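A reminder from the course coordinator: this example appears on the midterm review sheet, so study it carefully.

Given structure:
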């Protein structure tokens, strides 16, 4: 009788939703004249190089500040498994 080694792989996606923060657009001259949709698109593309709202905290960027906000929802989805031997 032959022996083989097998293992189990688990796959899933995880979504973490962080608390919102209020953005004072007056603190960001680059947002002047943009509508709400344009502001959101700009922030999505540039949050890592924008100053945080709270410049006295530890965060180096708006992105860091957003990442530090409390998690209000944690959901795992698309869960599946597979048995492997290689």
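Designed residues:
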């Amino acid at each position: 009788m032959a022996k083989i080694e097998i293992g189990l792989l688990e796959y899933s996606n995880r979504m973490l939703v962080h608390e919102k923060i209020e953005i004072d657009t007056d603190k960001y001259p680059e947002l002047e004249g943009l509508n709400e949709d344009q502001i959101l698109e700009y922030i999505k593309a540039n949050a890592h190089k924008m100053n945080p709202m709270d410049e006295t905290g530890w965060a180096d960027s708006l992105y860091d500040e957003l990442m530090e906000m409390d998690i209000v929802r944690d959901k795992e989805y698309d869960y599946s498994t597979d048995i492997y031997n290689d």
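The helical segments are 36-46, 62-68. The chain has one domain: 7-84.
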